[in-house]
């Protein structure tokens, strides 16, 4: 079965950086688009960034120029490099695989605070 395991979250000061990883298994990783979503307390889950099988990337406006998504098909892993982090980036970050009904990882907490 499809499994997505995120890692790399944590506590960081404003202006800092974090790199999230999402390791996928049980799927032909290279042919599917992958995305990162985030959900802050009391808010809906929102799309942050996506990467197509071709490598084409899209970002929500609030993270453009600060976040970078890429994939390593040899490692079945998608990454999210987050820089210039702001308190409003605080959320649980989820990896999402765009195949079939869609699959979610368990999430990783990112807290931006001084």
The total beta strand count reads 11
Report how far the terminal alpha carbons are from each other.
40 Å
**How many H/I helical runs?**
0
**Cα-atom radius of gyration:** 13 Å
Structural class call reads: mainly beta
Largest sheet: 7 strands, mixed
Apparent shape: globular
Name the average pLDDT.
97
Order of helices and strands: EEEEEEEEEEE
- Low-pLDDT residue intervals, each spanning 5 or more residues: none
Relative helix content: under 10%
Key features of this structure:
seven-stranded mixed β-sheet; 114 residues; mainly beta; four-stranded antiparallel β-sheet
Please outline what is shown here.
The protein is an all-beta fold and 114 residues long.
Give an overview in words.
- This protein is mainly beta and 114 residues long.
- The chain is built from no helices and eleven strands.
- It has strands spanning 3-7, 10-12, 18-25, 34-39, 45-51, 57-59, 67-72, 77-82, 91-97, 103-104, 108-112.
- The strands form two sheets. Strands 2, 4, 5, 6, 9, 10 and 11 form a seven-stranded mixed β-sheet that branches.
- The radius of gyration is 13 Å and the shape is globular.
Topology summary:
Elements: E1 3-7, E2 10-12, E3 18-25, E4 34-39, E5 45-51, E6 57-59, E7 67-72, E8 77-82, E9 91-97, E10 103-104, E11 108-112
Parallel strand pairs: 2-11
Antiparallel strand pairs: 1-3, 3-8, 4-5, 4-9, 5-6, 7-8, 9-10, 9-11
């Amino acid at each position: 079965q499809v499994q997505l395991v995120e890692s790399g979250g944590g506590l960081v000061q404003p202006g800092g950086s974090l790199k999230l990883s999402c390791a996928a298994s049980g799927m032909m990783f290279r042919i599917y688009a992958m995305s990162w979503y985030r959900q802050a307390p009391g808010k809906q889950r929102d799309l942050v960034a996506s990467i197509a099988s071709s490598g084409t990337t899209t970002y929500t406006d609030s993270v453009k120029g600060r976040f970078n998504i890429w994939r390593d098909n040899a490692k079945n892993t998608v990454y999210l490099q987050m820089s210039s982090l702001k308190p409003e980036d605080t959320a649980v970050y989820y990896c999402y695989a765009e195949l079939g009904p869609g699959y979610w990882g368990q999430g990783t907490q990112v807290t931006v605070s001084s």
